Amino acid sequence: MAKYGMSMCVLGMAEEFKPDGIAVNAVWPKTAIYTAAMDMLTGSDSSNVCRKPEIMADAVYTLLCKDSKSITGQFLIDENILKNEGITDFTNYACNPANKDKLMMDFFLDDNNILDSQDKKHSSNKTNNGEVGQVERIFIAINENLSNELVNRTGAIYQFNVKGKEAGVWFLDLKNGKGAIGKGEPSQPADATLTMDSENFFAMFSGKLKPTAAFMTGKLNISGNLQKAMKLEKLMGNLKAKL
């Protein structure tokens, strides 16, 4: 069942069973939880930025111990539930305790997935006036961040098929030399090809849209090596402050 469908069930069932003293609530994770799905989507390294499923179990257990008439029809976050019980140290819930402050936020709690109307208007005006568009600004910023270290760490060639107002094909070579970018297809086969709308492309590289959330919600289509595609997330983090 889709997340929206589950949310509607919570609201409907909470009202239906309230006269019987039965509570129905939804619990959401604040951070990504390491499961087989995360392993498949982003590789085993994703455990370094995830929490263990135990935090969800403890949060739900806390709810089950409460009077069912005291809370129902609510959408609650695991960490907040436990904080209300006096828990302040969540280190042990991290798969890698050393990264407890560098965890990936949950995909469905991000309210900045879509550019606001002012951003869209700005993007459209720049393109129509023949000035540098949002997408080209991204690649200019990427070019300024190219380095041997980045190439050695990534080892992949990417092709970007951008649709919408700033449609075009771009490539990013992080496998050879000091790296390179350019318009058109790469001279060597791409390890991963990413296809998305230009506005979502800018939102993703400027930190307003999480890559994994974009992929899981259909805003980003990836063909080729998925794990190498996910390596771009660190590059996006470096660009955020420059856009």
From TrEMBL:
<dbReference type="InterPro" id="IPR036527">
    <property type="entry name" value="SCP2_sterol-bd_dom_sf"/>
</dbReference>
<keyword id="KW-0560">Oxidoreductase</keyword>
<protein>
    <submittedName>
        <fullName>Hydroxysteroid dehydrogenase-like protein 2 protein</fullName>
    </submittedName>
</protein>
<keyword id="KW-0521">NADP</keyword>
<dbReference type="GO" id="GO:0016491">
    <property type="term" value="F:oxidoreductase activity"/>
</dbReference>
<comment type="similarity">
    <text>Belongs to the short-chain dehydrogenases/reductases (SDR) family.</text>
</comment>
<dbReference type="InterPro" id="IPR036291">
    <property type="entry name" value="NAD(P)-bd_dom_sf"/>
</dbReference>
<dbReference type="InterPro" id="IPR051935">
    <property type="entry name" value="HSDL2"/>
</dbReference>
<dbReference type="InterPro" id="IPR003033">
    <property type="entry name" value="SCP2_sterol-bd_dom"/>
</dbReference>
<dbReference type="Pfam" id="PF02036">
    <property type="entry name" value="SCP2"/>
</dbReference>
<dbReference type="GO" id="GO:0005739">
    <property type="term" value="C:mitochondrion"/>
</dbReference>
<feature type="domain" description="SCP2">
    <location>
        <begin position="146"/>
        <end position="236"/>
    </location>
</feature>
